[in-house]
Every structure is written in C-alpha cells, then in structure tokens.
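A common beginner's mistake is to predict each chain separately and then try to dock the pieces by hand. The better habit, illustrated here, is to supply every component at once so that their relative placement is modeled jointly.
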Amino acid sequence: MSGIISQNVGRTSGLVKAAAAGGGAWTLIETITASSDSTIEFDSGIDSTYPIYLFKIINLHVSSNNTKPQVNFRDGSTAYDATKTTTHYSCSHNEADNQTWLQYETGGDLAESTGDQAFFYQNVSNVDDAASSGELFLFSPSSTTFVKHFIGRLAVVANPVASGQGYIGGYCNTTAAIDGVQFKMNSGNIDAGTFKMYGLGDS
Amino acid sequence: MSGIIAQNVGRHGGLIKAPEAGGGAWTLIKTLTASADSDLSFVDGTDDVVLDSTYKEYVFKFINIHPSVDEAHLTFQASTDGGSNYDTTLTSSYVLSYHAENDSETSLAYQAGHDQAQTTNFQNILHGTGTGNDEAGSGILHLFDPGNTTFVKSFIHRASTLNTADYNYQNFAAGYFNTTSAVDAIQFKMSSGNIDAGTISLYGIT
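With all components supplied together, the output reads:
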C-alpha cells in the first residue's frame, strides 16, 4: 500500500486507495436480510472478478419445523438447477444428552442431480430462539474449463432440539459459468437471517 | 455503493469509494499473548476489546497454543455479565480425527466425552496438546452475532494439534450458547494447568 492514501484499514467512508491487484482482502459484495422469504438469491455479482466467493449465513431462522436449509446454483438460465455431485456428512448431540451421531448422509448427497443440496439433512428446529449459522465457499464460478467446486458447513439447532453440524462439498458438473446462488428451505420460508456474499481476489 | 465512484468491483488501481461499513474487512480487535497464564479473556469494553453488536461475526484465531500440562485441552466459555462469570449454558457436538506420525493408526469418530449438553462447562476446542518443546496446536473459532437478543449464539470451530504420543489430532466442534442474552465476553483456558505460550487474536468481520 502506498500513495496519497496509505491507510485503508477501517475506513468506511470517503476515498481509499484500491488494493494492489485486488489481492488478499475479502470484499463484501452484497448483504441480504431475510424476512419471511421463500428464497434468498444472489443473482448478480458472481463473475470472473474473484476466484473465490464466500457466503456467510448468520442466524438463519425458519418458519417450518423439521425442515432442511438448502443451496443450489444457477448455470446460465434463470433456474437454480446446476447438475451436482456432492458429499454430505453431519453430526449431532441433543440437549438431553442421550443421542449423538457422526454419519454420512446417504439421503442428503447428490449424484448428478439438479436438485437442491441440503446443508443439514436431519432437519432444523423453528423454536423461537433457534438459528443456524455457517459459510459456503464457491471456487472459480466463471471458469468455462473446469467443474465448479464448493464446500460449506452449517451449525444448526436441530430438531429434536440438538446441536448439529452439517458439512457439504461437491461440484457443479458443468463448464458453464455459475452466475447465481440460491438458499431456501425444503418447506416453508426463511423467516429471518443475514446472508452475505464476499469475493476474494488473488491477482 | 454510491457516490462519485460507484463501481469498485475489480478496480485494482487509483482511488475508489470506501466500501460501506468497511465491508469485507477482518478488523483485528485484540491479540493476547500467553505467558504461563491461567486464562486469556476478551471482555467487551475492556482493554480496547469490542465484543457486541458492532459485528455480526467474530473470529478467534488461536496460534501455537502450548500447555503446561501434558494432554490438556484448550477450552472456552462465554459470559453474559461482562466477564464476571463464564458459565453460559451450551449444547455442542464434537468430532475428532487423528493419525499417528508412524502411520500406525487413524480414526474419525464422534467424541461423546468432549461435547456438552446444556451444561455451563468450558467447551474443548484444542484436543490434548503435548508439552514437548515443539508441540502446540492452532485453530479458528467463529462466534456469530453475540449481541443478538433474539436467538441462541452459534459457534463453529476447527483446529489441529500435536499430542505427546506424536499424533496429529484434528477436531471440529460446533454448538450454541443457549441464551437470548447478549454474550459480551469470552474466556480461554486449559482444562488443566496454564497456557504456557501462544497467541489468541480476535477479529470482527464486516
């Protein structure tokens, strides 16, 4: 960093010097706040600008009990239906302290499917103070040579009430660019929550 | 984004408009360096620590944590009363994988002895680090929206360490402090003995 404005950190107004080559910093691209929404969609700003995109999910609260947070990807059309092959595993521990598990979710993975990918296949709770938080990385979405990998994890309040962790990873099996990401429940709405999309430069 | 320079994306030179609210920045709030300390605490409003609704996400990076007692775990708990008490009810899940340096053993399993079910105990986040001179562990802990007064306070974590028997332990935990009160302080300590060395840094994410 050099030049007439040498100190960017913490500056939230006015002009700052552009980061050299744009590398090393997460850039907040968009924040969406849910309010009884059937879907949360990032339908712009996903392009070749950044090689890595990061989505943060903070305090996702659902309208319907016993439902699954899900994600899907758009690959050129208006539909969020990119073909995906994925793996999904989860673990959980209930508040009553009489059940734990760590398991591969054979019902929650996808094999060349256009369906939605569950973040936590064993379902979340909609009790008033229940919320889920986590993150999803999407790599090189604009590549027209390779498949598009993603990895994510979500900490949930499961139903019946438990601490749960959902881990997903996989790829959109297309050489078309991914230009949109959608979050939704398999049933009901996203009552509340903050969704953020960041880009990370590398060149 | 608005103003005289409305388009920042992809601009790698010249002047640009500062992102709203400093979006995308990891703001280093405080770094604590251990030196045979019984605990390291981050208390909102104390010693320049911010741990409130300023940020929706806070990240703790614990680096080269070296215990005084062999196989002790680094643990953490939350306070809702400004650090007077670290005893917030929590429920968590905990998974451990390991691999011996001599390639003799591997494992991936849920660890029922290291999770919590509505307890006020400290949560393990670094698994059984050794006290050998080169033995230490590091990891990352995310705490979401601690200033929220509607929902529980979720956390997720992942760490790697070297134990005394020359095993690599990788553990990942997640859970929630089951309170709708704001969390305003976090304390780290070993399950036994002191934190001989290491640093813990707190970042706010916008």
